[in-house]
Amino acid sequence: MRFDTVIIGGGLAGMTCGIRLAEAGQHCAIVSQGQSAIHFSSGSFDLLGHLPDGTAVSDPVAGIATLARQCPTHPYAVIGADSCARHAGEAPELLRRAGVPVAGDSRRNHFRITPLGKTKATWLTIDGYLTTEEAGRLPFRRVCIANIEGFLDFYPEFIAEEFNRQDVECRFGNFNHPDLEQIRRNPSEMRSANIARVFDREANLEALSESLRKLSEGCDALIVPAVIGLNRNDSLAYLRSRVDTPIHLLPTLPPSIPGIRAQQALQHRFRALGGEYFLGDSVLRAETEQGRVRRIFTANHGNIPFEAECFVLATGSFFSKGLVATPDRIVEPVFGADTVYAGGRSEWYTLRFFDRQAYQAFGVRTDAGLRVMKSGSALENLYCAGAGLSGFHPVQEECGAGVSLLSALHVAERILKN
Ligand SMILES: Cc1cc2nc3c(=O)[nH]c(=O)nc-3n(C[C@H](O)[C@H](O)[C@H](O)COP(=O)(O)OP(=O)(O)OC[C@H]3O[C@@H](n4cnc5c(N)ncnc54)[C@H](O)[C@@H]3O)c2cc1C
């Protein structure tokens, strides 16, 4: 099989790169072995919340210029501040064209509310999710936090505790539906995706709107867990059209409905542009000649190779097995690419989970053009995008989705230019 570009990994980075290339007329394939981090996402995309030295960032584009001085190996520094600013303008448009309705401004972070009610700086948030322009200023004073009876992945009490600190009066309300009884029998089935399937049915959504209408009496707003709209786009609009009080969604613990929706929308967009998406297949090995990747081989296609002019490594970090830790090394399993890591294993992490962990910045070594290094030289036609890149701390710097989106657009731009 022959393509212009083959992308390995179908998470946010792989999809973004594939869509951009397909929009430009390339014939692309994405090979992806399974779920990606986006299935667990909050519904918000971070660009930059903190500098490496811990300073909070309100203007991410300005922050990226400062960051390049503090940490020259950060992917944003490698891409360059001007290119980052340009790609940060393109990314939301690409998401919207794919049917992921996001709002936000790369010159001004807004704040999302976490499943535990905390406020966190972010860049883009999917429409319908509760955000505020200023930390500590929620857009209501009296709220009803609604939950489904028996749903354990949403914590109204914690949320209320945080809201109370911002002088918001909270009360709780439960809703239920007979069609949930089937999944309620087994607590492990009572998860957001299964619940959302129940409310994808028109009659059940109508019943939900009736319950919410009653719960909303005397409140300025209703908070509802993100358990609607798995397979339909109009669920929230439907509820809002039937309930006069504003309804805001809050993310739940994973699986994430906004993440699954975004994944489906991106995949659909890629295929609609003529891209070929091989889900459930793993790239096992590659053949290189004279500094170029010639072909790759996958588990499902055996000896039938995937050949292309360019290849993109978007296999993510440890979470997606794009990187693997052995007792003494960090390995990139497909190409055996050079990796960046420091010291011995005991220096890779501390026992305090929320510390700035060294291992988070480990990743694939690239040249200034994001081409993958192997045995000290750049492979001419193999680029790396996304969470597998080295040099950044996605959690502390709040830049995970931003690095995936911007590096994917940058790689696509380089492929198209070359
Ligand atoms: C649990 C979790 C939640 C997060 N939530 C957020 C959030 O809410 N907001 C935010 O800004 N950032 C978040 N992040 C940061 C996250 O890294 C990025 O947002 C982004 O989604 C990463 O995308 P990616 O495509 O680079 O990598 P991944 O999403 O990890 O995708 C890599 C893909 O490659 C595939 N793959 C791996 N090896 C192979 C192979 N050999 N052959 C074929 N396919 C392969 C994997 O199956 C996977 O589909 C989160 C990260 C994690 C781990």
Question: Which structural traits does this protein have?
Answer:
4-stranded parallel sheet; 8-stranded mixed sheet; Rossmann fold; 22 strands; 418 residues; FAD/NAD(P)-binding domain; alpha/beta; 29% helix; single chain; binds flavin-adenine dinucleotide; globular
Account of the 3D structure:
Strands 1, 2, 13, 14, 15, 16, 21 and 22 form an 8-stranded mixed sheet that branches. A 4-stranded parallel sheet has the order 10-9-11-12, sandwiched between helices. A 3-stranded antiparallel sheet has the order 3-7-4. It is of the alpha/beta class. It contains 11 helices and 22 strands. A hairpin with a 2-residue loop joins strand 21 and strand 22. Helix 2 crosses helix 4 and helix 8 packs across helix 9. The protein starts with a strand and ends with a helix. The protein folds into 2 domains: 259 residues, FAD/NAD(P)-binding domain, CATH 3.50.50; 121 residues, Rossmann fold. The structure holds flavin-adenine dinucleotide (FAD). The site of flavin-adenine dinucleotide has 36 residues, from helix 1, strand 2, strand 3 and helix 11.
Biggest sheet architecture: 8 strands, mixed
Given as residue ranges, the uncertain stretches (5+ residues, pLDDT < 50) are none
* Count of domain modules: 2
Query: What global shape is seen?
Result: globular
Q: DSSP helix count?
A: 11
Please report the distance between the alpha carbons of the first and last residues. Answer: 22 Å
**What hetero molecules are in the model?**
flavin-adenine dinucleotide
CATH class of the largest domain: Alpha Beta
Mean pLDDT across all amino acids: 95
Q: What percentage of residues falls in helices of 4 or more residues?
A: 25-40%
What proportion of the residues form beta strands (DSSP E)?
15-25%
Extended strand count: 22
CATH architecture of the largest domain: 3-Layer(bba) Sandwich
- What is the CATH superfamily of the largest domain? FAD/NAD(P)-binding domain
Look at the helices and sheets and give the structural class: alpha/beta
What is the CATH topology assignment of the largest domain? FAD/NAD(P)-binding domain
What Rg do the Cα atoms give?
22 Å
